[in-house]
Specification:
The chain has about 140 residues and is mainly α. It has one domain. It contains six helices and no strands. It is elongated. The two termini are about 30 Å apart. The relative contact order is 0.15.
Length: about 140
């Protein structure tokens, strides 16, 4: 079961990265009503995959791996978790814009630029999450 949970965690993480890349791609040109619908749908995939990453990750921490005491004394794990929450917070504004655009709100070029920048930051955050995951997996950052 431990291997399956690790597999599920990785699949969800790859789905998250893929969905963010699709969002970025859809934000390259003019945001038409069709693009706005695709953005909202893709953002739903971002949200679902992020929720799955978090849920499975927490299950792994508490039930399937080394235990919460180990992970919560590891600086790399804490940095990874904090960064995950920061990336989640960064995603709120784009989500709200995608939903508004889907409902027919005016699409301002400056707003698209701002959303695109936030999605770039989300992807950058994911890169650092991967770095902290690699450090954590090798026991780097252990404080106890």
């Amino acid at each position: 079961m431990t291997a399956f949970m690790a597999f599920l965690h990785h699949v969800a993480a790859f789905a998250l990265v893929a969905a963010l890349a699709v969002e970025l791609s859809l934000l390259r040109g003019e945001v038409t009503p069709a693009h706005a619908r695709r953005l909202a749908l893709t953002d739903a995939v971002v949200g679902m995959s992020a929720a799955l990453v978090l849920a499975v990750g927490l299950l792994r921490v508490f039930y399937f791996e080394k235990g919460a005491a180990y992970y919560f004394h590891n600086g790399a794990f804490l940095a990874k978790l904090a960064l995950f929450l920061l990336v989640a917070a960064l995603s709120i504004y784009p989500t709200l814009r995608f939903l508004a655009w889907r409902k027919g709100a005016a699409v301002d070029a400056e707003d698209v630029r701002r959303v695109r920048k936030l999605v770039h930051l989300e992807l950058l955050g994911v890169v650092f999450i991967l770095l902290f995951a690699a450090l954590m997996a090798r026991g780097i950052g252990f404080t106890g």
